UniProtKB/TrEMBL annotation:
<dbReference type="GO" id="GO:0045202">
    <property type="term" value="C:synapse"/>
</dbReference>
<dbReference type="GO" id="GO:0099536">
    <property type="term" value="P:synaptic signaling"/>
</dbReference>
<dbReference type="InterPro" id="IPR011992">
    <property type="entry name" value="EF-hand-dom_pair"/>
</dbReference>
<dbReference type="InterPro" id="IPR050774">
    <property type="entry name" value="KCMF1/Dystrophin"/>
</dbReference>
<protein>
    <submittedName>
        <fullName>Dystrotelin</fullName>
    </submittedName>
</protein>
<feature type="domain" description="EF-hand">
    <location>
        <begin position="65"/>
        <end position="154"/>
    </location>
</feature>
<dbReference type="GO" id="GO:0005886">
    <property type="term" value="C:plasma membrane"/>
</dbReference>
<dbReference type="Pfam" id="PF09069">
    <property type="entry name" value="EF-hand_3"/>
</dbReference>
<dbReference type="InterPro" id="IPR015154">
    <property type="entry name" value="EF-hand_dom_typ2"/>
</dbReference>
Amino acid sequence: VQQLSEILMELFQRARLEKPGQVDPRAAEFTLSLLAAMYDRSGTGYIKTRSAAAALIALSGDTLLAKYRAFFQFYSVPDGKVAMITRSSLRSLLTDLNQIPAIVGESCTLSCVEIATHSCFHEVLNSAIVEEKFLSWLRSEPAVLLWLPTCYRLSATEMVSHQARCR
């Protein structure tokens, strides 16, 4: 948690320099508090790096495709010259991401994670899948992660401006 706090402070300091007046001075503190509530409920002082990274990626303002690629990068395992994501690492990713809606009381059960994992590996004979299969599955908007593209669409429309007038 201490290392994560330092990283977040540096991250938000850079963001404040790039976008003066647009980043709350307590952003690092708030973000750390959110991450601790999601991934360190018992107060051990330890949060898995991969879990924190998944949450920060999911909550970032990047495109869905960039987020999906980053998820693959953090959760994949090398298999020769190719990186692949296993059933186990997919379960970890989905469990970590499920903590985000859970913080506001909207989590799904462990069976949702298993159903989603099964759907991703449907008709797959290998123990792991390549990035394209993973991305294709995510683009199909599995129910367990439906909140992610929905939040992305909502945030993307916040900046839309139309020149139409209503009466």
